[in-house]
Amino acid sequence: MAARKTNLTNTGDFQNAAFGQNGFRVISSATVQPAGEEYVCIYCIAVATGVTTTTTAGDALAGVDLQAGMVLYGDFTTITVATGNVIAYIR
Prior knowledge:
With 91 residues, the chain is mainly beta. It contains one helix and six strands.
């Protein structure tokens, strides 16, 4: 059975996603993203270069460098990193 897609307009789903209750994935240059996995937050663990994202709405990142401790919120469908590591919270 396929996992139910999180509906962020539902209060319970929003709270679960906001507090990382759906889990997270550490993304590096070697990470292969599972099919269909989407993310709501990117937390930069250490300097990450060449961060690229795709989104269903709004602007995407293209080769952006992030400093340690930076946090980005959005509806990310893919995240790639050239160097460094980020934590991506699953939607």
